[in-house]
Amino acid sequence: MSAVILFAVACTPEDSAISTSTPVNAGAVVDSGPYICKLVPEKAFLLVSGTNGPPGEKISGDEANGNCWTSNIAPKLLEVVWMQETPESTRGYLDEVMEDRRRVFTRHGAAVLPSDLGEGFAVYFPEGPFSDQPYQVTARFSCGGKGRIIDLNVAQVAKGRDGIRDMIELMRIAQKRYGQLYKCTPGE
């Protein structure tokens, strides 16, 4: 019997892949500080992107409208954009922004976000003008009675990860952090 087992092992090609149902980089996307761009957990981002940190960041804009991106890694591995309903950025303007995004994202097979995250989509753009940050998620939600939009754009996802699912989980955390930082409850 030991000869049969030895023969089976000896005849297994060296380059054959061992099939597993668990991805190589299978850790959960969880909320823990420190944060990149105030909204994205650094550990979760490094897990999702498969990069080593810590990434630097640059911020442009203010509390109501702005963006932030990783600065010491090229291309921008992460970009976060936020908008808030203000007298200058009216509810109608936010409607137009989301309508434009809906048209583009759905044309590329976007997944609709779970309803608890508001109106939004997650998509992978493998080519074209968005291919430098092909993993994108956008969400419009209320917080403190005002319309808000958050976009998260990621340049790469680690091998074996579900990029769309990870982007949705990063959005879930970003909205929760947004509420904590700006003293409002997402969804209200």
- The CA-CA distance between the termini, in Å, is 68 Å
Largest sheet, in brief, is: 7 strands, antiparallel
With strands numbered from the N-terminus, the spatial order across the biggest sheet is 3-4-5-9-8-7-6
Rg result = 20 Å
Helix run count: 4
Key attributes of the depicted protein:
188 residues, Protein Transport Mog1p, Chain A, 28% helix, disordered N terminus, alpha+beta, two-stranded antiparallel sheet, globular, seven-stranded antiparallel beta sheet
What would you note in describing this structure?
This protein is α+β, with helices and mostly antiparallel strands and 188 residues long. The chain has one domain (31-181): Protein Transport Mog1p, Chain A (3-Layer(aba) Sandwich), CATH 3.40.1000. Helix content is 28%, strand content 25%. It has helices at 2-10, 42-49, 91-107, 163-181, and strands at 35-36, 40-41, 57-61, 66-70, 78-84, 111-112, 119-124, 135-143, 146-154. The strands form two sheets. The chain has a seven-stranded antiparallel sheet with strand order 3-4-5-9-8-7-6, with helices on both faces. Strands 1-2 form a two-stranded antiparallel ribbon. The longest helix has 19 residues, at 163-181. It starts with a helix and ends in a 7-residue tail after the last helix. Residues 1-23 have low confidence and may be disordered.
Concise account of the structure shown:
The chain has 188 residues and is an alpha+beta fold. Strand 6 (111-112) and strand 7 (119-124) form a beta hairpin. It is globular, with a radius of gyration of 20 Å.
